[in-house]
């Protein structure tokens, strides 16, 4: 379980996160939504231990993110917003190089397995520069899963890629959640959230303004507007507007 308790984060005098409290259960796919600059990546950076909260506590499976970096890093996989791969190296070389950064030894069978799970095994000897944007995203995800973490943190994993790769990634996220992995990911895409997330959180100006299911969000907006909402775009519009 991920437990975020009254987290604040400032950059100088600028307040970025302003009292965020949230619990995410094992096996959940939790979608973190918010306008640009709302603080989504900052919150993910705190979960990865890269950044410290200015105030508040975060625990993952009972471990403190500010004090128990080693245990936390073993239990999380992180997929950054920007592709983090060596373009001139092959898929195999990228996976091998990334596995060297992981403290535990990754057997070759595991490297092949993650590659198969994201449908890239037939690209094993191809240079990353030859892969499509969607394939690069899938390789980024494979790399994050090498050490078989319990928790996967993904910063806009499907932005700007072809629809086929997006659907494959979404299906794979469901498989991982069924295996018991907890997934937290940031997105702007309501159409994928609907079929994927058990719950969503809406972050605006560093505050969580909504936590719940899509159905709850829809019901609450319908209630406020006193007229039924027709499509998902409308839900996201109302959730994100000031
Ligand atoms: N190192 C930094 N120093 C100062 N301000 C920063 C730093 N990193 C981020 N910020 C500011 O913090 C705010 C939140 O940024 P963050 O990247 O967390 O937002 P976001 O919700 O992920 O946005 P996006 O959807 O555009 O990725 C922004 O105003 C950003 O300019």
UniProtKB/TrEMBL annotation:
Q: Name one GO molecular function term.
A: ATP binding
> Matching Pfam families, A to Z?
ABC_tran
Extract the PROSITE patterns matched here. ABC_TRANSPORTER_1, ABC_TRANSPORTER_2
Asked if the keyword Transport belongs to this entry, the reply reads: yes
State the UniProt keywords alphabetically.
Answer: ATP-binding, Nucleotide-binding, Transport
| SUPFAM superfamilies cross-referenced by the UniProt entry | P-loop containing nucleoside triphosphate hydrolases
ABC transporter domain residues: 2-230
The entry's family comment says: Belongs to the ABC transporter superfamily.
Q: What is this protein called?
A: ABC-2 type transport system ATP-binding protein
Source organism of this protein record: Metabacillus malikii
Print the organism lineage: Bacteria, Bacillati, Bacillota, Bacilli, Bacillales
């Amino acid at each position: 379980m991920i437990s975020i308790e009254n987290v604040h984060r400032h950059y100088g005098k600028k307040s970025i996160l302003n009292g965020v409290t949230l619990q995410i259960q094992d096996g959940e796919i939790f979608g973190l939504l918010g306008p640009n600059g709302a603080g989504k990546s900052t919150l993910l950076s705190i979960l990865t231990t890269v950044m410290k909260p200015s105030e508040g506590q975060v625990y993952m499976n009972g471990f403190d993110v500010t004090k128990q970096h080693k245990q936390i890093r073993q239990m999380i996989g992180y997929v950054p917003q920007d592709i983090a791969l060596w373009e001139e190296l092959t898929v195999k070389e990228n996976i091998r190089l990334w596995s060297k950064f992981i403290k535990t030894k990754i057997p070759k069978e595991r490297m092949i397995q993650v590659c198969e799970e994201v449908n890239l095994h037939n690209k094993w000897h191809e240079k990353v520069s030859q892969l499509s944007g969607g394939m690069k995203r899938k390789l980024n995800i494979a790399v994050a899963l090498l050490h078989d973490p319990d928790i996967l943190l993904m910063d806009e994993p499907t932005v700007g890629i072809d629809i086929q790769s997006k659907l494959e990634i979404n299906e794979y996220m469901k498989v991982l959640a069924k295996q018991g992995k907890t997934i937290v990911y940031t997105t702007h895409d309501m159409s994928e959230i609907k079929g994927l997330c058990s719950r969503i959180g809406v972050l605006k100006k560093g505050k969580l303004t909504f936590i719940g299911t899509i159905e709850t969000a829809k019901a609450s907006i319908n209630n406020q507007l006193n007229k039924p909402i027709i499509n998902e775009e409308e839900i996201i519009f109302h959730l994100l507007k000031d």
